[in-house]
Amino acid sequence: xxxxxxxxxxxxxxxxxxxxxxxxxxxxxxxxxxxxxxxxxxxxxxxxxxxxxxxxxxxxxxxxxxxxxxxxxxxxxxxxxxxxxxxxxxxxxxxxxxxxxxxxxxxxxxxxxxxxxxxxxxxxxxxxxxxxxxxxxxxxxxxxxxxxxxxxxxxxxxxxxxxxxxxxxxxxxxxxxxxxxxxxxxxxxxxxxxxxxxxxxxxxxxxxxxxxxxxxxxxxxxxxxxxx
Amino acid sequence: xxxxxxxxxxxxxxxxxxxxxxxxxxxxxxxxxxxxxxxxxxxxxxxxxxxxxxxxxxxxxxxxxxxxxxxxxxxxxxxxxxxxxxxxxxxxxxxxxxxxxxxxxxxxxxxxxxxxxxxxxxxxxxxxxxxxxxxxxxxxxxxxxxxxxxxxxxxxxxxxxxxxxxxxxxxxxxxxxxxxxxxxxxxxxxxxxxxxxxxxxxxxxxxxxxxxxxxxxxxxxxxxxxxxxxxxxxxxxxxxxxxxxxxxxxxxxxxxxxxxxxxxxxxxxxxxxxxxxxxxxxxxxxxxxxxxxxxxxxxxx
Lengths: 228, 301
Hints:
The complex is a heterodimer. Chain A is α/β, with parallel strands linked by helices. In chain A, about 35% of the residues lie in helices and about 25% in strands. Chain A has eight helices and ten strands. Chain A has helices spanning about 40-50, 75-80, 95-105, 110-125, 140-150, 170-185, 195-205, 225, and strands at about 1-10, 15-25, 30-35, 55-60, 65, 80-85, 160, 190-195, 205-210, 215-220. In chain A, the strands form two sheets. In chain A, strands 6-7-8-3-9-10 form a six-stranded mixed sheet, with helices on both faces. The longest helix of chain A has 16 residues, at about 170-185. Chain A is globular and about 45 Å long. Chain A starts with a strand and ends with a helix. The relative contact order of chain A is 0.19. By secondary structure, chain B is α+β, with helices and mostly antiparallel strands. Chain B has helices spanning about 5-20, 20-55, 70-85, 95-105, 110-115, 135-145, 155-195, 200-210, 215-250, 255-260, 270-300, and strands spanning about 60-65, 85-95, 125-130, 150-155. In chain B, strands 2-3-1-4 form a four-stranded antiparallel sheet. The longest helix of chain B is centred in the middle third of the chain and has 42 residues, at about 155-195. The two termini of chain B are about 25 Å apart. The interface of A and B includes residues 49, 77, 79, 81 and 102 of A.
């Protein structure tokens, strides 16, 4: 569960990135966070990853009170999350398998478990044939599927996807969101940040609109699929 | 952490060298050159110090004994002189031996010497050789307090010149070594920073997936240590070749050896294990620590 209570973030430059934001995303929810550039979306993500601290208000993610979280507890907290970057951020010197297995090695998972779990998630994103390929041998869509598999491999409670369709062809964007929807159907909470309104309209669901650091819209709308 | 986890991190460190071979090679070269520059400067200083030490070894304090001293007292004085810390050799010279020696060194005054007959005006004495030139004044003070001393003679001027020479050489060598260490540290730091910078994204990804700082740093530490180890070994080989060739050029030159004294230049064989150890330890330490310190900037995400 993600809960922000009266959260404000003011940067040292004087910019008010978030202004008295309150938000609650329950376990198992799928929510789109939309807003134009500079609206405060990235600040919200940084806050949820404990990359920055709130100037005021409280932030709670997956049962961790981020206001009270000590520096040495950050790795443990982040292991309860899955994160998908817009620019994929795969380690170029590692194969698809190694990029995903790496997350489990970080948490010191048993080797037997890694050998079983990694091919399983690679199967979920349908990249079995690319298991031993390096990132620069993959297309944009494939790279993002690897990134999703990496976010999924340690069975996180929450996946945060920051503009996951920003660097891929529009037709592949739908595939990526479908994949995230499928993951959400299995019980994982998904928070997807995007500025692609067509995509949001197509899928519908809970839409949170941030403008000038404030939540101006937070409702569930029906998607094109639903209307059909 | 499990044993397999530790093994994984060590493997990662080793593999990273190959994966980032260009940056690893750059670090290797910079570290090798830096170690060699500092190492050669240190060896040069040690040899200059040894040469000065060799010259100062020839310095003597002449201790003349009171004529009233008995044979037992003379022997006791000899023992006391030998026991002084810093004295390398004590040689007795009887007044007769001193007289003969004086006659030999001044044959033109033979008639005057002969006219003295058995009336030898000289006294018995000891020639005291001092190991460390810096302690000559201190040793003279100790001898002065002993019984049956008639007179002490030391070439204070020569001692002072050597002490000044050593002071200046030490000062210059220290300044050069400190300068080289600083330049080397800047060179190493920049190369390591560049190497770590090229992998900053990798570090950030590790942080986002929940890697601890230790998990990120250990492979960098191992990578830096291995690179540093090989740089140390390389610097040793190059130093060995340079030192040996310089040594043979100098020792084959009789004129040079007459000036600086035979045996004043330290043969490489005598110090090779210390040099190898120092190079490898310094290389591994600087390489490992440098890499870890350079990750600090990128690890705080």
